Amino acid sequence: MLREGQGRVRLLTLGVLLLAFLLDVATPQALVAAILFGVPIALSGMAFSPRFTWGTVALALLGNLTAGVLNAKAEGGLSVLAVANRLLAGLSMALVGYLTLALLRRAEAQGRVELALRRAEALARVYRALDLDLDPEEPEATLLKATERLARLFGAEAAGLWKKAPGGPALVGAVGPPPLGVPGRVVRAWEREAPGPVEEGVFAFPLGRYLVLLEGVGPEGEARLKELALEIQGRLQAFWEKAQHVSALKELAYSLSHDLRTPLTANLLNLRLALQGAYGPLDEAFRQALANGVAANEALLRLADNLLELARFALSGREPEAVPLKALAEEVAGALGPLFAARGLECRVEGEEAWVLGQRDALARAVQHLLENALEHAPPGSRVSVRLEAWDGVVRLGVEDEGPGVPEALLPHLFRRPVREGRGGLGLYLTRRILEAHGGRVGYERREGRTVFYLELEEVRHASPRVPG
Q1: What is the pLDDT of residues 117-145, one digit of tens each?
Q2: Residue 143 is inside which H or E element, if any?
Q3: Are 404 and 379 in contact (CB under 8 A)?
Q4: Mean of the pLDDT values across residues 273-281?
Q5: Smallest Cα–Cα separation from 401: which of 453, 333, 349?
């Protein structure tokens, strides 16, 4: 349609150019009608072709010269005024051609900008449609939900998610009426390696063993799909790879929980029984070796728990809720009370109640990591304080102890990766991850000779009382 329109504009331009030439020849040289050549030159810009515009300028100049010669022969010679008029007319033709091309370039640039904006808006709609929470239990269900959203976005009457199976393509799920049997278009779509139309109104996105098929797509939707096909394909591929990664991480987390914790727990039980003399008397050296084994097994169990927690936190997709931070800290401190008492430590929670928005279990683990850190490094017989403060919409929970603090050489690595000695390790790293996921931060400072590890979160001033605290 566009080429047909441009062809009609070119024919019209040439017709007007011929008419202007005939009028110029028919008029006396004292009345130069060559200025009419500016009309077809300006009209040539509608063909959106710089070459055609310059061609029209060249024809107009040639017509100007030819008309001048014919007029001069008809009147028996050239007049100075006629020559001057012809030169001015030629300059005006060149100027009109230049301005026409300048406007044409500007229109093309504006068109490219508008096209880029429309494309960016369309991509933004696609990305919003595919912004889904991954389900580690059912990754195929999440991919089917993405298929449903694509179908709605591009006006497809039906859509299906297919996968390869030993007996041929199998339907995972469908939007709209499910097909009876395996349609031929599904078989043909498997042969494609790139996204594209299978037949009129049917568009396919291959994803390895899976296939997303949109059916009953109108001409407008199909045009937009063709334009954005590679971006949609890349988004779906990245989405599916992430879903597979999350599913594999889930399996790894539970394998770690079962395969590592079970033998460690059994071994720790045997070591403790031996240390209590269940298998006979012990000399001091053997008793010390068993005590070291118990400590090592306990450390390995904590590591397994932290790794499992890291995986579970990465997989969590629960909605945040209003959490009373002081009540949460009191709950965690109460659970750790026997450990504090065993080391001769006193633990107090001080300050006014403050509410934050987040995942209660994850925040409890963050507080627990800070308290376990203090439990490990506070000197026996000292006091550990959990202090809550709030100002300017920020809640700070600080855990203070009388330990030696963090060596300066380890400060750059604090909260970033486990270290072999001093304060640090996976617990503090997990605390940072949890706080970053909640839009908060974790930090360390020395205050009046005491060690302070703290976390800061945005305060929820009008929290719902549905969470007890």
Answers
A1: 777 787 788 877 777 766 655 777 888 88
A2: helix 139-153
A3: no
A4: 80
A5: 453
How does pLDDT run across 20-34, given as a tens digit for each residue? 788 777 777 667 677
Distance CA 54, CA 89 (A): 16
What is the pLDDT, as a whole number, of residue 423?
46
Number of residues written out for the chain: 469
Sequential DSSP letters for 208-251? TTEEEEEES--HHHHHHHHHHHHHHHHHHHHHHHHHHHHHHHHH
* Encoded amino acid at 3, one letter: R
Q: Quick one: tokens of 308?
A: 């499992």
| Nearest CA among 125, 172, 133, 173 for reference residue 152 | 125
Q: How far is CA 6 from CA 9, 32, 44, 48, 436, in A?
A: 5, 31, 9, 8, 58
Q: Chain-centre distance of CA 302, in angstroms? A: 34
Q: In which residue are the tokens 């939707």 written?
A: 221
**Cβ contact 252:222 at 8 Å:** no
Tokens standing for residue 77: 């010679």
Alpha helices in 27-138 (DSSP H): 38-44, 50-75, 80-129
Could you tell me the strand order of the sheet in which 441-447 lies?
A: 346-350, 383-391, 394-401, 450-458, 441-447
In degrees and rounded to multiples of 5, residue 390 shows phi and psi of -140, 135
Q: Is 332 helix (H, G, I), strand (E, B) or coil?
A: helix
Tell whether pTM > 0.70.
Answer: no
Specify the 3-state DSSP secondary structure of 437.
helix
Rg (CA), the chain: 39
Burial class (CB in 10 A: 0-12, 13-18, 19+), 109: exposed
Q: Which residues contact 112 (CB under 8 A, 6 or more apart)?
A: none
For residue 291, count other CB atoms closer than 10 A to its CB. Answer: 13
> What are the pLDDT digits (tens) for 172-230?
888 887 776 677 888 888 777 788 888 888 888 888 888 888 988 888 888 888 888 88
Half-sphere exposure of 188 (CA within 13 A, CB side): 10
Pairwise CA distance, residues 84 & 415, whole Å: 85
CB-based contacts of 84: which residues, under 8 Å, 6+ apart?
none
CA atoms within 13 A on the CB side of 77: 2
Residue of 136, 153, 145, 159 whose CA lies nearest to 205: 159
Question: In whole angstroms, what is the distance from residue 169 CA to residue 160 CA?
Answer: 11
Query: Which distant-in-sequence residues (6+ apart) come within 8 Å of 291 by Cβ?
Result: 275
Please give the pLDDT value at position 367.
Answer: 93
